[in-house]
Design goal:
Peptide Methionine Sulfoxide Reductase, Chain A; two-stranded antiparallel ribbon; 24% strand
Length: 164
């Protein structure tokens, strides 16, 4: 009998969640993805609430992954490569706290991996500027699932990215 694989969760905010979700969804070892809101103070926020800038939430992708196929460090590398972690509360044309760069860690191992990775990238000068990504415990925030029409938004439209 095959031993059951224990899946793990990760959560990342890297700007508009549509493209970020599509990138993670199509990454080998990712079992499922969901887009939502995390890191704020309003219960059960809606997209309109979050876009108002008054809830404190970030557009977030929750990733369920199989650590026997993909490591958390590899997921962090996907995160760094899918956005610009040096822009505060902004990704491309999208401006606001909801578009901030943020990693929500679920355990000490994830925290250490995220901190070490950020420090290594900052020291390397890879981005030419300081990385402003927040690294915070997921336990302090609830993940609120976004509305259905946001889930797998690009896949439903046959698109690979938000760029037209």
């Amino acid at each position: 009998m095959k031993e059951q694989t224990k899946y793990k969760k990760a959560a990342f905010g890297a700007g508009c969640f549509w493209g970020v979700e599509e990138t993670f969804r199509t990454t080998k070892g990712v079992i499922s993805t969901a887009v939502g809101y995390m890191g704020g103070h309003t219960e059960n926020p809606t997209y309109e609430n979050v876009c108002s800038g008054e809830t404190g939430h970030a557009e977030t992708v929750e990733v369920t992954y199989d650590p026997s196929i993909i490591s958390y460090n590899e997921l962090i590398n996907v995160f760094w490569n899918v956005h610009d972690p040096t822009t505060l509360n902004r990704q491309g044309p999208d401006i606001g706290e909801q578009y901030r760069s943020i990693i929500f860690y679920y355990d000490e191992e994830q925290e250490k991996a995220a901190m070490d990775s950020k420090e290594k990238l900052n020291k390397s000068g890879a981005y030419g500027r300081e990385i402003v990504t927040e690294i915070v415990p997921a336990s302090e925030f609830k993940f609120y699932m976004a509305e259905d029409y946001h889930q797998q938004y690009l896949k439903k439209r046959g698109q690979k990215s938000c760029r037209f």
